[in-house]
Amino acid sequence: MPALLDDVRFAFQPLFNLNTGGVVAVEALARPHDGSVQDLLRMAFRAGYLANTDVALACRAVRHAADHDFTLPLHVNLLAMTIADKPEHLAPLYAALRDTGRAPSNLVVEVGTPYTRAPRPRLVKGLERLRADGFRIGLDGVGEGDSPLSLLAEVRPDVVKLDREVVQAIADPARFALVQGLQHLCEATESLVVAEGVETEEQLAALRKLGVRLAQGNLLAEAQRRPKVNATISAVLSELNDPEAVAKTMTQPLRRKSGPKVTDFLHPATTLPESATSEEVRDVLATQPTVSGVVLVDDEGRPCWTVDRNRFLLAVTGPFGHALHAKREAARLADKPRVIGAESSALEMLDIVANTGRERTNDDLVVVDDEDKCLGVVRVADVVRGIAEMKVEQAAALNPLTRLPGSESIAREVDRRILAGDIFAVGWLDVDSFKRVNDSVGFAAGDDLIRALGRTLSEGAAAYPGVQVGHVGGDDFLVVAGLNEVVPYAAGVLDHPFEAEGHAVTLSLATLVCAAGTVGSYREVSRLLAPLKEHAKSLRGNSWVLGRPGSDHVDVLRGGPHLAAG
């Protein structure tokens, strides 16, 4: 097998942050002279040298990356079977890291399929050992291979690689829903989803709308012998922000209610020891023109100082700057770091910036973990742009008459509760004979009635944290609520009198109570609500009916019998 490995070369493909457009990591991809990597590994398996060959490829990837001298995290591939094998097989990988000066924390081990051939307890133990030694863990081929979701929940990897087959078919509603579910699961496990194999702008737009923030593929940058660590995809992203391009995507992003986190805009930090000289900092800035600064860290990786690119170069490039500063510690030209926790929101970051002196307003902030170790940096401009885009998206999704979110917002909330296994209720509310209201007192009065109804729904929801209201068009409103909230909330709305130009109007409400496992999607909820709504419209006065999936029984909570539908 060693002779065959001599013919293996490596190409490097960057991973991009879709919020910032910058490169955040690089994957090393083996390229045998003849055949594929899979062919090579199959030959090694038949010869009884699978683990040795697999690890040897990872070692060569590390050494080839060292030839290009980049500091971004490196992704290398190892089979699940190799990690579940004897621990001593991985010893050469540790040696390759020592020889090249790359820390385990700067390496992401992508665990590859097949997973079912690796004994689960030994695989989990092997991954725990790698993580304890400082390595970061990624699960590859998720969504199309044989990777069980229970393994994802148990291992809680740093990175989850979405299989390219899923990405290529993301226009299919079922695949789109699959990625939605995976995003929810990864938010719970604090894992990052990476979409690989992105080939078209439509795929990229759909991924961004789903909230996937890391991606790689030929649309963004092809794999090359020399890694493109300074590449950006800002031009591609600006095209996708066009309103017509956005309209083609299937739904809005799965955003946290508190807004984006600072880690959504994370750049890898360029670090040097706190004792680094100005000459060493200058060399880094000269070879990496896109780096906006350097973080000086202690032996534990905690930030001690930050060196801003512009202020530093201004100091060292004057007539006597180099002679004065080159051999002296760079900390003399540095500032105390502005740090922010990884769980902080982007809005909290802007609060820090607002209370900073004007000369440091545009400085990077250093993101730290619970042990105050540097995880990366965020740039103020990226966060400001990201929040501005989010606000534009939110405003575009609101109904112009009531300023309530539309059906897409309710769809996301229903799907979220289904995936979480919650017990909840969905209500469909409208005005009885609304067309007759418009025809008799005019559409302006009809608009006033809809605004009043929207205000009542919103004000009532303020008292119930689990209630979400949407205006889906015309006189139709949707409500999602917890089981203990739906009765008092709905009763309060129906008790409120409504009128148009002095003419009293009545409302109809149909409610579907969904227990865990009884419904599979928002679309199914919508279908089950339709006959309930028809039942409610057949009743007299303010009406309210309640049903459950799988049951023909309907509870009539309000309304008199047998009035023709309005």
TrEMBL record:
Protein name (record): Diguanylate cyclase/phosphodiesterase
Domain GGDEF stretches: 422-549
Phylogenetic lineage: Bacteria, Bacillati, Actinomycetota, Actinomycetes, Pseudonocardiales
Domain EAL as annotated: residue spans: 1-237
InterPro entries associated with the record: CBS_dom_sf, Cyclic-di-GMP_PDE-like, EAL_dom, EAL_sf, GGDEF_dom, Nucleotide_cyclase, Rev_trsase/Diguanyl_cyclase
Superkingdom field: Bacteria
Pfam family, one: EAL
Native species: Saccharothrix variisporea
UniProt GO MF annotations: cyclic-guanylate-specific phosphodiesterase activity
SMART domains, A to Z: EAL, GGDEF
SUPFAM superfamilies for this protein: CBS-domain pair, EAL domain-like, Nucleotide cyclase
